[in-house]
């Protein structure tokens, strides 16, 4: 590979890592559109490669949260009861579509575009809406577990199909509906995301949907970028930056969807 392309991929990883460290926005929703629309990676390969990058990136953060006691293992297990089967289902749907659709990459582009619009929009709404009140003690414990497993199932299907959602969507849904303590919720979300992206990465690798060279170059930039972003997070208005980032993702998603529809017609 040309050195210029390799440098671009490393810088892409660095940029995404810094933004993730600064804002806490999931790396998948930032990296995937760059891989497909900027670097020109086929969406089905971008999905698999993104899963590998997300998995490796979460290892260090997961270890830190575990050592600090910020992981609710029962919650991880309950989420995993839904998300692991969900990941298998999502990848199975992807395999089915690859066999039946003339252009599975076109479908994935549209699906990714929709997620780039919906997830940031809902996240912005959840941040500012006072009507979204957590459902807590009024629910029976077993009902809560079923609800959490259902969240895991939905997220697992989403990640298996697109690699997006292991962090952002899980965190958002648990905050909205169950109101766990933020420190514990973040740590639990990271460890569960490590489990989910690990399973998804193995499945995608088995299908030949992973460019390991590309993943390595992205990680060379994203790992130090994440550390740098976390280090300077207290020196910049990260909440405002997150809002701007979400707005840009929505605009990018709308453009990506429009281009996909026009080219697909």
How are the elements arranged and paired?
Elements: H1 3-23, H2 27-38, H3 43-67, H4 73-100, H5 104-128, H6 141-162, H7 168-178, H8 182-206, H9 212-232, H10 238-264
Helix pairs in contact: 1-2, 1-9, 2-3, 2-5, 2-10, 3-8, 3-9, 4-6, 4-8, 5-10, 6-7, 7-8
Protein described:
The protein is mostly helical and 265 residues long. The protein has one domain (3-264). 82% of the residues lie in helices and 0% in strands. It has helices at 3-23, 27-38, 43-67, 73-100, 104-128, 141-162, 168-178, 182-206, 212-232, 238-264.
> How do the helices and strands follow one another from N- to C-terminus?
HHHHHHHHHH
Estimate percent helicity: over 70%
User: What is the distance, rounded to the nearest whole angstrom, between the alpha carbons of the first and last residues?
Assistant: 34 Å
Please state roughly what percent of the residues sit in beta strands, choosing from under 5%, 5-15%, 15-25%, 25-35%, 35-45% or over 45%. under 5%
**Domains (count):** 1
- DSSP summary: helix tally: 10
What's the story with the biggest beta sheet? none
Shape: globular
The chain-level mean pLDDT equals: 84
Gyration radius over CA: 18 Å
The poorly predicted ranges are 130-139
The beta-strand count equals: 0
Instruction: Briefly note the structural class of the backbone.
Output: mainly alpha
């Amino acid at each position: 590979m040309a050195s210029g392309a390799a440098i671009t991929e490393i810088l892409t990883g660095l940029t995404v890592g810094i933004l993730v460290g600064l804002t806490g926005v999931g790396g998948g929703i930032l990296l995937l559109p760059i891989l497909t629309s900027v670097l020109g990676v086929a969406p089905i390969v971008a999905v698999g490669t993104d899963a590998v990058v997300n998995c490796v990136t979460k290892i260090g953060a997961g270890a830190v949260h575990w050592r600090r006691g910020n992981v609710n293992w029962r919650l991880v297990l309950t989420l995993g009861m839904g998300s692991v089967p969900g990941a298998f289902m999502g990848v199975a749907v992807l395999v089915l579509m690859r066999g039946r659709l003339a252009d599975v990459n076109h479908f994935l582009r549209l699906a990714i575009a929709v997620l780039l619009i919906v997830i940031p929009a809902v996240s912005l709404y959840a941040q500012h809406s006072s009507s979204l009140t957590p459902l807590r003690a009024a629910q029976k414990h077993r009902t809560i577990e079923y609800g959490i497993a259902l969240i895991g199932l939905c997220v697992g299907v989403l990640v298996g199909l697109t690699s997006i959602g292991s962090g952002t969507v899980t965190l958002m849904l648990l905050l909205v509906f169950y109101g766990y303590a933020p420190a514990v919720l973040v740590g639990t979300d990271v460890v569960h995301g490590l489990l989910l992206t690990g399973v998804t990465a193995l499945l995608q690798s088995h299908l030949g949907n992973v460019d390991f060279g590309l993943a390595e170059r992205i990680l060379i930039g994203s790992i130090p970028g994440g550390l740098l972003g976390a280090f300077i997070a207290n020196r910049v208005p990260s909440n405002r930056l997150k809002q701007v980032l979400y707005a840009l993702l929505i605009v990018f998603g709308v453009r990506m969807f429009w281009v996909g529809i026009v080219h697909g017609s």
